[in-house]
Write a structure and sequence with these properties.
Elements: E1 17-20, E2 30-34, E3 40-42, E4 52-54, E5 57-58, H1 82-86, E6 87-90, H2 94-102, E7 112-114, H3 125-128, H4 130-140, E8 145-149, H5 158-167, E9 170-175, H6 181-187, H7 194-206, E10 210-218, H8 227-237, E11 241-246, H9 253-264, H10 269-278, H11 291-294, H12 298-314, E12 346-350, E13 408-411
Parallel strand pairs: 2-6, 4-7, 7-8, 8-9, 9-10, 10-11
Antiparallel strand pairs: 1-13, 2-12, 3-4, 5-6
Helix pairs in contact: 2-4, 4-5, 7-8, 8-12
Length: 412
């Protein structure tokens, strides 16, 4: 895995900004424990088709440049750039909290979506197994669940998902926005290839599970031409429903996306940004409910027509999903929302900084399902054990706790 330098847009909620005088250090993976008291996020957005979701993780190793959840990290005094990609928050008591929520007399066994924010099957799940534990709670309580993921790790839990489908219902949506693997790698660098995700659909469908495909996000001028091929391949693999959402770039996501686009795909960057603005009334993002997932104007209409006519021709279920602005799930269209969760209490547990058992691997392919938490002890340069230290500031003056970063200058 190529080294990546720390890079975050200015945090609009922060009173200070870090400028590295000798060049930014390389990113190191860090894991933080979230001691939240509730796990069910409740959503009431008018263009979101589900009410409850569970997010075992905040931040995502997949590092997709377009991820609309990036600004949520800024509420934790972290950054929306590489901090979001490599400072991952885990909710270790997710299954316990979900069990308590299901035990309440007021709970009506509504479908719970995994996840409304970041991918519940990102690489850390191979060790933490939080999503699997939550699905086992769903099985025990016969509570319906739906999953949205880009990861092949979901195949590990076929046994739990088939049992959940037997006692309640289970539905999995696999997101495949690109057909060209090179472009996929440029924009979503640590995700399984499009071909591998198609095999996930085939595996789940052969197991008798309901599977859909989410051709999302559509980035005008970059991957809208891929829609017919992705839909055809997904249908052949066994997908029965399809959804499509236009790229959403709220807040700091605009800067992260444009920077990645100009570095990774410089020859098409201006064209893509122009096309996005063409579907957003001259802006890179339109936050209005309804319009945010669909876009407006002739180019957005063309994308919508291409998707809907292709999906209808291939025989996708258009009554339950199957339209632009709607990721496919058991009940109509969701966009993702954090559900207004309050900021958790975080305790730092570093990865890849100081590991007494040896350095942590930086290769996604090395992540194994070993049943152990993928964390390592972290120590400050002074030698004291800070593996359970309260996280209070995103800035360590002089690079004292960043694994050897050059000195920083902090500007108020």
């Amino acid at each position: 895995m190529l080294p990546v330098k720390i890079s975050n847009p200015p945090n609009p909620w922060a009173t200070t900004e870090v400028e590295y005088l000798e060049g930014a250090p390389e990113v190191k993976l860090e894991v933080f424990e979230d001691h939240t008291r509730q796990i069910l996020a409740k959503n009431d957005s008018p263009d979101v088709g589900f009410t409850f979701s569970v997010n075992p993780y905040r931040g995502c190793f997949h590092a997709c440049a377009y991820c609309y959840a990036r600004p949520s990290h800024e509420y934790l005094s972290l950054g929306a750039g590489t901090d979001f990609d490599r400072k991952i928050v885990v909710k270790l008591k997710a299954a316990e909290l979900l069990r308590a929520a299901f035990a309440k007399k007021s709970w009506r066994k509504e479908t719970v979506v995994f996840s409304g924010v970041t991918d519940c099957y990102q690489p850390l799940e191979a060790s933490y197994r939080l999503t699997r534990a939550c699905l086992e709670v769903c099985v025990a309580h016969a509570n319906p669940a739906a999953i949205i993921t880009k990861s092949a790790l979901v195949e590990r839990d076929v046994d739990v998902l088939t049992e959940l489908a037997r006692v309640a219902s289970a539905f999995v949506t696999v997101s495949i926005p690109f057909w060209d693997p090179a472009r996929a790698r440029a924009i979503e660098p640590y995700v399984a290839t499009p071909a591998r995700r198609l095999r996930v659909i085939e595996t789940l469908a052969r197991a008798g599970l309901q599977v859909g495909v989410n051709v999302a996000p559509i980035i005008p001028g970059l991957n809208d031409q891929d829609i017919p091929r992705i839909l055809a391949a997904a249908r052949d693999a066994g997908a029965t429903r399809a959804g499509c959402v236009l790229v959403r770039l709220p807040g700091s996501v605009k800067q992260v996306f444009e920077q990645r686009l100009r570095v990774a795909l410089p020859l098409v960057a201006d064209r893509v940004l122009h096309r996005i603005r063409e579907t957003r009334g001259g802006r890179l993002y339109d936050p209005r409910f309804g319009a945010r997932g669909r876009g407006e104007g002739k180019y957005a209409d063309m994308i919508r027509t291409l998707f809907e006519t292709t999906a209808a021709r291939l025989g996708f279920d258009l009554q339950r999903g199957g339209r632009v602005g709607a990721p496919t799930l058991p009940s109509a269209p969701p966009a993702m929302s954090s559900g207004g969760q309050s900021p958790p209490t975080l305790h730092a547990r570093g990865m890849g900084v100081v590991d007494e058992a040896g350095p942590a691997s930086g290769d996604v392919e090395d992540v194994k399902d070993d049943g152990q938490a993928a964390v390592a002890k972290r120590k400050t340069r002074g030698g004291s054990d800070s593996s359970d230290a309260q996280l209070t500031l995103p800035i360590e003056f002089g690079g004292c706790d960043d694994g050897g970063a050059p000195a920083t200058k902090v500007r108020s």
